[in-house]
Amino acid sequence: MAVIKEQDNGLLWSHAGEQLLIQPWGKNSFRVRVTKNADFTKQQNWALSLPVEDIQAKTSINDDSCEITNGDIKAEINNFGWLKFTNGKGKTLLEERWQVKPGGHKTSPLGIPGRELKPIIGGDYSATMRFEPHEDEKIYGMGQRQEKQLNYKGCILELAQRNTQANVPLVVSNVGYGFLWNNPAIGQVTFANNETKWEAYDTDQIDFWITSGETPAKIEEQYANVTGKVPMMPDFASGFWQCKLRYRNQAELLKVAHEYKDRGLPISVIVIDFFHWTQQGEWKFDPKMWPDPKSMVEELKQMGIKLMVSIWPTVDINSENYDEMEDKGYLVRTERMYGDSYHFMGNETFFDATNPGARKYIWSKAKKNYFDNGVRLFWLDEAEPEYGFMYDFDHFRYHMGPALKLSNIYPLYYAKAFYDGQKAEGQKAIINLVRCVWAGSQKYGALLWSGDVHSTFESLQKQVVAGLNAGLSGIPWWTTDIGGFTGGNVEDPKFHELLTRWFQFGTFCPVMRIHGFREPAEQTIEHADRMFNQPFGSGAFNEIYKYPESTYKILKKYLFMREALRDYIKLQMTNAHEKGTPVMRPLFYDFPKDSESWDVADEYMFGPDILVSPIIHSGETSKEVYLPAGVKWIDVRDGKQYQGGNKVTVDAPIESMPVFTRADKPVQSLLDFEKNN
């Protein structure tokens, strides 16, 4: 018979060496842990790192079952030890799927348990949680992925970080719950029609958080309260960011900045990409190409432009810092053979972001060579980290343990290294561009971008979905390489079309940033695997004024449209900071009672009052747009009004993208801009 008792302001159920602890963890929420060890790993809260208010839950303990209630959520453990979660109305949110005898009303001879901690020979466990499926459930969130589906029901998703894939294992369900798999281990989740299954390949315990919310907004706010909220975005960051691979020297970069200003084009940030350094792992400007960084930063400042510099976590074996970092245990280790884990212009390994000493070390170098020269914006690239093309996680080991057990948390600690360093120096407005995140990264000023995506319309389609699900995963600051990163030929009219459509979409992203390795280029990225200790070249131009006049005219218009929106964007950034509200979000976020809106994947809300319908197919010059019910909508281009709850077909010539504003809450700055332009 199970032992049931109150413990740690929650309920502890134990039987045959297994312990299960349910605790109130924020409003209408529980944290659940299961272990077969002597005790829980209490010193590590992973994403749930913030202190939560002391909520006194209501408990009820019978001879062989129990329940605990926290606001609008109740957890029950029946006489077989099976978990079930319901909301205040008695609706089942989640329940474990047990296929064993005895089984009450769900008897099965299959012998498949609802939860498992299978021992790995030598110590740890592999973990599996199985839940009963809901008919017609829709599942969103799960970070940023390169998929066309907005709704992940029916999908199998890897729980791992890769270039273009940011794993944030948070689910937002139309059933009325949010679920966080609070485990940084490599694994997999299956959202099948017959079961939902979460797996961690190497772990100490099962750990998850569940919240009850009648609307997606309530779920997001409750999640942000326990994992953290983004800082307030500094005003400059809502403007236009100019970037390319790559500006090779100080004179070239300043010439571009002056050209933007001389033409009267709005620009807030200009970016220095990789290989501006002397060697990977030295984190400093090459003085031959960047002779006076401090004066460069000051000259940009006089023009009202901020400078961002690229940081890589790679450390080349020839770096002046390699031996010291290896001696101190500041590098990621390998389990077999050679210590290098990456080949890009040399033999490299990664600094170990899970090591507090390594975090302080890399910041000390960045402070001396960048921060002290006036740089306040860092581009934390390769943040997964990018283990070549194979991502053999079982081959790597961190200060905190095996990569198989915790590699998903690497990008969070990478962001934390710079956030903590900048904060300690007194910097107030902290925003850093990162290529990967995990649950909770948002509180460290992380601006996620979607990685090295290709310059194709198919890729553009995926970026729309990627941005929406990233926002639903608690990452309100998100952007994409406008035009895609690889494959865009600046002389090709087909790329001009793609760039224009991507630029229009980018105007209505939380951050508007153009970037890319444009063709024709001196070499490809693949060449870098063999070009040891040679200078890396540069792609073709990527400044908007260098494109053909017909393209430039459209890009220029949308650049100024972004300027007209900045007061509106600031309001949305305030909501993100105060409540965790995503800036760009699916239609159902603002119209949860409109069932049609839950199935729309090619439109979105930009804040509560602007509906955006990007053009994501080549040659498309008209589009059918669904307008959510309950309000009237204004096409900002011609002022025509439409009744919500209908699909309308509108023109979409290359010069414009369909954008609507609510008639009852019109964004006047947008209407005025279109009227005057």
Automatic annotation (TrEMBL):
Full protein name: Glycosyl hydrolase family 31
Ranges where the Glycoside hydrolase family 31 TIM barrel domain occurs: 231-569
Annotated SUPFAM superfamilies: (Trans)glycosidases (SSF51445), Galactose mutarotase-like (SSF74650), Glycosyl hydrolase domain (SSF51011)
Keyword Glycosyltransferase in annotation: no
Any one GO MF annotation of this record: hydrolase activity, hydrolyzing O-glycosyl compounds
Superkingdom, taxonomy of origin: Bacteria
Keywords annotated in UniProt: Glycosidase, Hydrolase
GO terms, biological process: carbohydrate metabolic process
Domain Glycosyl hydrolase family 31 C-terminal: 580-664
Pfam families in alphabetical order: Glyco_hydro_31_2nd, Glyco_hydro_31_3rd
Family indicated by similarity: Belongs to the glycosyl hydrolase 31 family.
